[in-house]
Amino acid sequence: METLPVRLDWLWFLGMDIDSEVPDHSVLSKARGRWGVEVFRGLFEQVVGQCVTEGLVAGKKLFTDASLIEANASENSVIKQGSLKKHLRKG
Asked: If pLDDT is split at 50, 70 and 90, which confidence band does 83 have?
C-alpha cells in the first residue's frame, strides 16, 4: 500500500490515476472478512480465467517484475505448477 502511489501499473489495474487517494490497507482486510475467502478465491479464479481466454496466460513461462518487497516465505512452501490446477475451478 505504501508503494501504490508510485506504481503506475497497479494504479492502472485498479482504475486509479496518479492523483487518486490511496485507500487505507484495512479496506481489503475488512472486505475479505465480510465476504469471506470463497468470494476472493472466486474473483481470483475468474481473473485468471479471463487472462487465459485472452491469451495473456499460457502457463509455459513465468515473468516477474523487479519490485522489492519484504517477504517472509519458506522455500519449503514452493510447489510445482501442476499441483495448482486442483485449486482452479473449471468454468
From this structure: low
